[in-house]
Task: inverse folding
């Protein structure tokens, strides 16, 4: 079956990364009718809590909550996201199949090395996917996304822009709570930062970004290129 063309394709190292960083933005644009996909590079098999099977089911539920149309999981080893041509080719093939307008990845500075490694791999893939002769044998046409932007997972950095997610923060929180194996504290859970008020910390971060922008909640993003504003400087909807 031919893949649907996506407006937004967001990559994460593990299922839940994208929801943490930009779940509200996804819910907002999905509600506007945009076609959105998520690609998790690993099966998160090294996670301290839960199983691969549980995580996959939680990811499916979270995607449904946010209105995501497509979710794929690659088989790159967890904690093995090293920069190599085979992994870049796998990501290039995903981008070429779905031909997204925008690509998102974790910000490179993060306490978890996999998130920075994911950023490097995706950035390399976005560049290579526009090169016609790169990975020609896969039989997929070259594609150049309009931009790549970076969301925050564990970090708190000065964003280059924010998205007002005040009306969609509940969707983001519901999506995060779908990952019970990762965020719920119980007697069987291994003690990690994720089960010690992590969701509340994410909510507080988005509240702070919102306060800076004059709204209740906002998600922050970083960009290596300046944003071009044409005729919506006054905040008017196009």
Result:
């Amino acid at each position: 079956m031919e893949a649907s063309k996506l407006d937004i394709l967001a990559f994460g190292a593990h299922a839940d990364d994208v929801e943490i960083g930009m779940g509200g933005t996804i819910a907002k644009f999905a509600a506007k009718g945009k076609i959105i996909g998520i690609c998790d590079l690993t099966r998160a098999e090294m996670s301290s809590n839960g199983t691969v099977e549980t995580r996959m089911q939680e990811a499916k539920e979270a995607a449904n909550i946010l209105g995501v149309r497509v979710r794929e999981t690659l088989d790159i080893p967890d904690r093995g996201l090293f920069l190599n041509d085979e992994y870049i080719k796998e990501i290039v093939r995903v981008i070429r199949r779905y031909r997204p307008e925008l690509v998102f990845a974790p910000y490179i500075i993060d306490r978890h090395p996999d998130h920075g490694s994911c950023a490097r791999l995706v950035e390399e893939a976005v560049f290579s996917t526009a090169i016609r002769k790169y990975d020609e044998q896969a039989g997929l046409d070259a594609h150049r996304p309009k931009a790549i932007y970076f969301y925050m997972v564990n970090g708190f950095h000065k964003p280059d822009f924010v998205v007002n997610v005040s009306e969609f923060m509940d969707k983001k929180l519901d999506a995060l709570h779908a990952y019970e194996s990762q965020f719920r504290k119980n007697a069987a859970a291994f003690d990690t930062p994720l089960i010690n008020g992590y969701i509340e910390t994410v909510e507080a971060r988005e509240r702070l970004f919102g306060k800076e922008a004059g709204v209740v909640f906002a998600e922050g993003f970083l960009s290596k290129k300046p944003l071009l504003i044409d005729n919506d400087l006054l905040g008017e909807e196009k």
